[in-house]
């Protein structure tokens, strides 16, 4: 594990995913073991991502299986979604914003202050997301009763 | 056209795309008419995107047809590429960086100073990219002899 991605860096993201999905969608997200993603790509059906600047430049992304996000948004909005559409995309953007925002608030308390761009959402069966970054990419995988998701963080440097 | 996207905002992007593709890949990009993208999504086979903060928060993206990017990278690297792979993804990240960087330099001269995240690249046949932003999205389309590309810029506010 890269020094830059120590426990005090990872924990805010773990907590944010569990908290946001639990309170917004009543979905229990169980974290797997975080790892350095040497393949540098996440594969999924829908991805929300946010660029960050400040303490370091990089990207925070949230990639989900179709089944997983359909359950989350169905719970969030109290309707049955069976297909990824514009409302799902908006919800993924909002979830990405909330998870990144909550994690950023905790990181700022630890002296790591980030500014964030607005979110983008990519929809496409089995698309791949590549972080164009020479530094290690941190992957934090989660399972839910309805499928998987992964949060990835890439930062180009830490100012330590 | 939204007041925020006037000529002095659009021209740096026009010039950057024409210049970067011309000098890096000897590909002539002919700009179409910029428009406000009410559908809020770009559709293509490969997308590079960069988040920005500072003068405003937002996203700059570059979405290309497969044929178009294969020609560009084949010219850039002096090899024949027939499939979108990791090298193509890296090249799209680099092109996005260069186009956004050149446009940012011009915008900074006009008093609009942006910081940029690192680029992300999405690969997936006919994926859609959605800008999660309540503000208008500026699309600048280009044609090349080998297919189309579009640059999109979404900003959540202008500090004017």
From TrEMBL, chains A, B:
One of its GO terms (biological process) is chemotaxis. The keyword rRNA-binding does not apply. InterPro entries: CheC-like_sf, CheX-like, CheX-like_dom. Keywords: Chemotaxis. Residues 46-143 form the Chemotaxis phosphatase CheX-like domain. SUPFAM superfamilies: CheC-like. It comes from the Bacteria. The keyword Cytoplasm does not apply. This is Chemotaxis protein CheX. It comes from Desulfovibrio subterraneus. The lineage of its organism: Bacteria, Pseudomonadati, Thermodesulfobacteriota, Desulfovibrionia, Desulfovibrionales.
